Amino acid sequence: MHKKNNSTENISAAHLTALLTILIWGTTFVSTKILLNDFTPTEILIARFVLGFLALFLIYPHRLKVTDKKHEIVFACAGLCGMTLYQFLENMALSYSLASNVGVIVCIAPFFTAILAQVFLDGESLTPQFFVGFLIAISGIILVSFNGSATFELNPLGDLLAVVAAMVWAIYSILGRKISSYGYNTIQATRRTFFYAIIFMIPLTFFFPCDWEFARFADPVNLFNIAFLGLGASAFCFVTWNFSVKVLGAVKTSVYLYLNPVITVITAMIVLEEKVTIMAAAGTVLALTGLIVSESKFSWRKRSRDADSKTGEEVL
After folding, report:
1. Which stretches of the chain are DSSP H helices?
2. What is the C-alpha separation between 82 and 79, in angstroms, rounded?
3. Residue ranges of the EamA domain (predicted)?
4. Cβ neighbours around 44 below 10 Å, total
């Protein structure tokens, strides 16, 4: 009984941390947009993860002792996919395509995660309600992202980069689930992925030069937003996200990404005073409905088996 209660508490905590993570990640677009006035995308990327790495080291300054050399490869791949490639591809996609296009496309990551989980992970089987929830949520995300705008453009390169970004995040989700099965401390494991992410970011500076003029950090607005991205969106959120993945699994945790554009639109309305239309409000309701349906414990397969069993008993 005690174990069951602990398990229930962990599951509830995992859902809450996943939701909290998305609440913070959904606001990062606004912070990044403000910082882009003085910093390049590459500078923002490196600064936030270096700060995040230092914060995690100060919180838990114990060296991670890797028990298997193969685990080190998984850590490196997770850092490359979840931090370096995903953030870089998303920024590049925004350079070539509309923000609304990219906002919709990257939210298909849960679908790719589900497909990969079927192939590479045990115990993460899909149910019909996952796909129903996915379709409902994507419909809502489309409404939220366009927010009543009549403008729609196809930008093959930018849209393709957004698709690749979603696939890369799905790979990170699977790698994160693998790492959680190794039994390492979550903070230490997250810090190790940050370390590799920073290593992989260094080559970007050769193609996208960085001008580390530290006077820009003296601006209170810049300092606050860098701190928010580094300490909140990076150090804190990746730890909480990895905890949720460890408890809920890659597929269940990934569906919370449906709320990302919803939070972004609400934050933009409050901070940037952008208008929110009825279409966006309706989209928010659909995105929330899709999340609830996807997370539902109701199993159509189980119900079908129960119905078949009951029919058999009636025949007997």
Report:
1. 2-25, 28-35, 41-59, 69-79, 86-96, 99-105, 109-120, 128-146, 156-180, 186-201, 204-207, 220-227, 237-248, 250-254, 260-271, 278-295, 300-315
2. 6
3. 14-145, 157-293
4. 22
Contact 141, 287 (CB under 8 A): yes
Domain ranges of the chain: 17-315
Task: Return the HEC string of 166-208.
Answer: HHHHHHHHHHHHHHHCCCCCHHHHHHHHHHHHHHHHCCHHHHC
Cα maximum dimension of the chain: 83
Q: How many CB atoms lie within 10 A of CB 181?
A: 11
What DSSP state is assigned to residue 147?
T
- Distance between CA atoms of 181 and 175, rounded to whole angstroms? 10
Average of per-residue pLDDT values in the chain: 80
Say what the pTM is: 0.78
